Amino acid sequence: MRLARLVWGPELLRYDFGRGHPMAPARLDLTMRLVGELGLLASPELEVVPAAVAPDALLETVHDPAYVAAVRRADAGTPDPLRGLGTEDDPVFPGMHEAAARLVAGSVDVAQAVWDGAVQHGLNIAGGMHHARRDAASGFCIYNDAVAAVQRLLDQGARRVAYVDLDAHHGDGVEQMFWDDDRVLTVSVHQDGHTLFPGTGNAADVGGAGAEGTAVNVSLPPRTGSGAWLRAVDAVLPAVVREFRPDVIVSQHGADAHRRDPLSDLRVGVDAQRTAARWVHDLAHELCDGRWVALGGGGYAVVDVVPLVWSSLVAEALHTPLDLGRPLPTAWREHVESISGLDAARWLGVETVEWRPWGEGYDPADDVDRSVLATRKHVFPLWGLDPYQD
């Protein structure tokens, strides 16, 4: 059994909303070039597989058939703005249905491989389209591959699946689809929805009737930095996931919480995002016999953030974490500069994050601490946990 399976192929670059759109396929291309230059693709522990096109029957496990038909019509030239198809966020492009369906097939493939025991860890950095709803596109997301992966695990016999979302934007599509399902825990750490799309993810949103406590939202103020972000993640995530006792963890690693990202107001560095990925990985080994499915997501600082965060994610899944001070390969840097005209990052990271665990005390004057406590007050008692204690 190999350690990890990664979905990749040039066909995944066809998920392309066009010139000027924030979700540029170059972010995937540059990531995979860096993964290759770092020698990760040559690891004997890594299996790389292409993404097929998901058939309608698979898409319809999580999307209404009428919506899938609407995507096909939009692909053929008939937009449907009422279903989010042909909007500023989700403009129609040729081959849209097929490109989006590949993301679903890829995430389901690695989820199935993890469940079958073929690999311990599955990766689809092109996935993580967490905003798509059952009947509509939203926020650059046509089909929701994260939901499809979780649903496949449930259909295959998983009793409980934990979904962890570290994107700067609330994982609203995943939460909404499993709102009433007590088999799925959704934990989203994101910028306050009063200040950022999609405007949801309040601390008081804890799940539907019979599933109270299975939606967990850590809603952070703008300008939250690396140390405070890690403190927030650590203060909530491990406790609720341990109480939930999942069979599998599916995580979304949108890189847009970074201070250089143009579409959020958080200030979370590469090292903090690497650390959080390690925590999720460790929880998978502690609780799930290593069963972990890791997806990409948002991230719009295409040159100097996304490739660094996601190549680190691949290395983490291979149990070979990258040295933060490691110089980045010259060939990769030269390619970045030739296509972008920008100076490429010279090192993987330049800061080691210091953070203060929750157990060292709550500060009522701190905006982040107040946000974290709000989540703990709403959620922890539902799990028999004390919101004020570790």
Topology:
Elements: E1 2-7, H1 26-37, E2 46-49, H2 56-59, H3 65-75, H4 96-116, E3 119-124, H5 145-155, E4 161-165, H6 172-177, E5 184-191, E6 215-220, H7 226-244, E7 248-252, H8 270-287, E8 292-295, H9 306-317, H10 330-340, H11 367-379
Q: Give the C-level CATH assignment.
A: Alpha Beta
Pattern of helices and strands: EHEHHHEHEHEEHEHEHHH
The CATH topology turns out to be Arginase, Chain A
What CATH architecture do you see? Answer: 3-Layer(aba) Sandwich
Strand line-up across the major sheet? 2-1-3-8-7-4-5-6
How many DSSP-defined strands?
8
Assign a percent range to the helix content. Answer: 25-40%
Cα(first) to Cα(last) distance is: 37 Å
**Biggest sheet overview:** 8 strands, parallel
- Please indicate the count of domains: 1
Low-confidence stretches: none
Radius of gyration over all CA atoms, rounded: 19 Å
Which of globular, elongated, flat, extended, rod-shaped describes the shape? globular
Q: How would you name the CATH homologous superfamily?
A: Histone deacetylase domain
Number of helices: 11
Give the percentage of residues in beta strands: 5-15%
Q: Which structural class do you get from the secondary structure elements?
A: alpha/beta
Please explain how this structure is put together.
The longest helix has 21 residues, at 96-116. The chain has 390 residues and is α/β, with parallel strands linked by helices. The model has no long low-confidence stretch (mean pLDDT 97). The protein starts with a strand and ends in an 11-residue tail after the last helix. Strands 2-1-3-8-7-4-5-6 form an eight-stranded parallel sheet, sandwiched between helices. The chain has one domain (2-383): Histone deacetylase domain (Arginase, Chain A, 3-Layer(aba) Sandwich). The chain has eleven helices and eight strands.
